[in-house]
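1-acyl-sn-glycerol-3-phosphate acyltransferase
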Amino acid sequence: MITWIRSLITFIGFLFIYLVITPVMLISTVLLTGSWYRNVTIAWSKILVGWMRIGAGIDYRIIGAENLKYLEKAPHFIVSNHQSALETLIYTIILPPHSFVLKKELLYIPFFGWGLAKAKPIAINRKDGKNALKQISKQAKERFAEGRSVIIFPEGTRVPFGEVVPFKKGGFIVAKQLEAPILPMAINSGIAAPKGRFLKEPGIITIVIGAPIEATSRTTSELAKETENWIRGHIVPSLNVSKIPSEAEIKALTAPIKSKETKREKTVTAETENRVETAKMQNAEEKEIAKVTEAEVMK
């Protein structure tokens, strides 16, 4: 009952922020660009995340924050799993200047989409894979030249906690072509704020940030597999872990992962998951290579 009441209060607060505060902030940014506009988007994200903390009792903490220093030295492809809308807000707050790769339909949402368009996203048509890859390659190169990293969610959509969706290869093809390092990030926000669910679970979301994975010394397949395996292996499967775990403790925590979202008593072992993921990745790679060659991406 308490969780339901807190979720309702959180929802009402979000409506107020979206319908009242967001238009005011958006109007105030009409003439703002660059770092000024970024400061406004960070402030807006902090308001939403702050209200989530007050209303629903959801907070976050970071493991591996020292790896953010690499983003200050040079732009990276930031690759993360995607479980809820919370990571887009949290990443806006904690990361240096960046651009999201996202579906273009998001730009059409009143207020939110209009503000999002000013943040220089790479907005793609997901139904046109070949041109989407060319667009990511071209615009990622432009964003890197501006000193911005590029954030990509290779699952392509929000995936409920505990479910496994193979990573799409497009971002890794571009990373290899541009020889851009990948900074992997893992988040378990889907436990607290599941996709499509009204009720929110109070607790502390854990974000794990890894060291860069260099593209120059790896093939596209190796880059994709290593990144996906790292992210899968660093999704902490519960809220409110009593202390920030070490690398060894994270590995112990993340195997096996029990799916809470599907409400099935199903434990996925790391060994079985790797076999399934490898088979799916090989199949996806064969299809991708048949459609898009690396030469086409760079045209």
